Amino acid sequence: MHTLPLYLDFANMLRSKIETGIYKYGQMLPTEQELANIYGLDRKTIRKAKLLLAEEGWIKSIQGKGTFVNKARLPFGSNGINGFTSISIKNGLMPKSQLLIQERRKAGTKYAKLFNLHKEDDILRILRIRQNDDLPLAVEDTYLPYALIPDVEKYDFTLQSLMHIMLSCGIILDHVHTVIKGRKSSNELANVLQIEEDTPMFEIAYFTYDTKQHCVEYTVSYSPDSRIIFEKE
Amino acid sequence: MKKILSGLQYEIMEKIETYILEHDLKENDKLPSERMLSELFHVSRQTLHDTIVKLCNEHRLKSYQGKGTFIAATPFRIDFQTYSIFRLCAQSSIYTYERYHYMHEKRYPDHDVIQQLQINAREKLYTTINIIQLNHDIIAMETNYSSEQFNNELQDTNLIYKRKKFSLSEATKEEALVLGIAEKAIVFVEVSNLYRNEQILQCTKTIVNAAKVQFTMDDYHKETI
């Protein structure tokens, strides 16, 4: 029987607590002293385990604030329609986002085809970084027909869930078609998401349809593999 | 802050996409030369070249030295949620499915497998590697680990497969060789276990070429929001 070094044993335990959702994305871990007291270990062991988990991307220390869980659980399966908002709520946190672009533009060939519009019709593009504090989780690029939501400019997309806005406008959603791709992260996305360039990144496209089977929203979400745990509900 | 998903390169990317749509270019169709496209879009050759490289990284185009740039093959789309493991998802897809034996040996398990089977890392396991093809194209490598010699073709209604992990990774040397891709190319990694009466019989690690496969799912809206 071989025994693991104490710090590895402790790291495994912490890791499985994150994996199973006991410690959730964005949650602050107890301090080193607190962990040392709880588990009866010395602080050196705790620190070594935390360094390992930080290296593996499970946690992140933020100067002057503490250590936070840096992986989110992304449930898949027949769980209804999932926007980022509901994913965050499942992870136990209020979602936050930073608005990079909100613009009205022409549909062009691509989006005219997708939304069943004319090339000259307007669409709305919203580009957001989904994050909690200094923990960027995803970059989300959203497109929808401009005429879909009356007075669309009055909404604050950093606070309100697009899905809830659509529901309040009487749009009845039917289903979301999701396409999951794997690719290397580009330099610009790597920068924003605070990861290395060329490391594995999920590109997940969500096509949301209303009950008339019209596509009412298209979002592409870019998220590093290291920040996501895919799990079956 | 640096511009992301916007700016000149992003616009060129959209223009290339629009060009492809409007000219109805399909798999293996050739794109005009970089020189022609840069003149058409009024951008420098360098900017255009960088954009093409980017689209190649996203597996949408493919470039061959001296031959030009082509539309990449349409990826296989496999339903992600019908079944719990990749092999069954692929089997139930619309494509021709083949799975054949590649090799068998005793070897040391990797981190994922040790974690699932909860075993001593210094123990060699019975290891079987299978290759999965769709439409006669190699798309995945399936490695089965078990501590006892075990026939995984066994028909037994008490056997249950469960997907335990789904993530992305860079292909190792062996994986790259088997899949015929570059080392460190992006692959999906699925770890699943085979259970009989809640006891793990086998752990399967499936490496899927991300350039050739995409996963899809459809979530229907529930009334309760």
Helices and strands, with pairings:
The complex is a heterodimer of chains A (233) and B (225).
Chain A: H1 6-19, H2 32-39, H3 43-55, E1 59-62, E2 66-69, E3 72-76, H4 84-90, E4 97-106, H5 108-115, E5 122-132, E6 135-145, H6 162-168, E7 173-184, H7 187-193, E8 200-210, E9 215-224, E10 228-232
Parallel strand pairs in A: 3-10
Antiparallel strand pairs in A: 1-2, 4-5, 5-6, 6-9, 7-8, 8-9
Helix pairs in contact in A: 1-3
Chain B: H1 8-22, H2 34-41, H3 45-57, E1 61-64, E2 68-71, E3 76-79, H4 86-91, E4 97-107, H5 111-117, E5 125-134, E6 137-146, E7 159-170, H6 173-179, E8 186-196, E9 199-209, E10 213-220
Parallel strand pairs in B: 3-10
Antiparallel strand pairs in B: 1-2, 4-5, 5-6, 6-9, 7-8, 8-9
Topology, number of strands of chain B:
10
Widest sheet: strand ordering of chain B: 4-5-6-9-8-7
Q: Helical residue percent of chain B? A: 10-25%
Low-confidence parts of chain A: none
Number of helices of chain B: 6
Using only C-alpha atoms, the radius of gyration of chain B works out to 22 Å
What does this structure look like?
- The complex is a heterodimer of chains A (233) and B (225).
- With 233 residues, chain A is an alpha+beta fold.
- Helices cover 27% and strands 36% of the residues of chain A.
- Chain A has seven helices and ten strands.
- A six-stranded antiparallel beta sheet of chain A has the order 4-5-6-9-8-7, covered by helices on one side. Chain A has a two-stranded antiparallel sheet with strand order 1-2.
- In chain A, a hairpin with a 3-residue loop joins strand 1 and strand 2.
- The two termini of chain A are 35 Å apart.
- The model of chain A has no long low-confidence stretch (mean pLDDT 86).
- In chain B, helix 2 crosses helix 3.
- Chain B starts with 7 loop residues before the first helix and ends in a 5-residue tail after the last strand.
- Chain B has a six-stranded antiparallel beta sheet. A two-stranded antiparallel ribbon of chain B has the order 1-2. A two-stranded parallel ribbon of chain B has the order 3-10.
- Chain B is an alpha+beta fold and 225 residues long.
- The longest helix of chain B has 15 residues.
- In chain B, a hairpin with a 2-residue loop joins strand 5 and strand 6.
- Chain B is elongated and about 65 Å long.
- Classes of the chains: A alpha+beta (233), B alpha+beta (225).
- Chains A and B meet through helix 5, strand 7, helix 7, strand 8 and strand 10 of A and helix 1, strand 7, strand 8 and strand 10 of B.
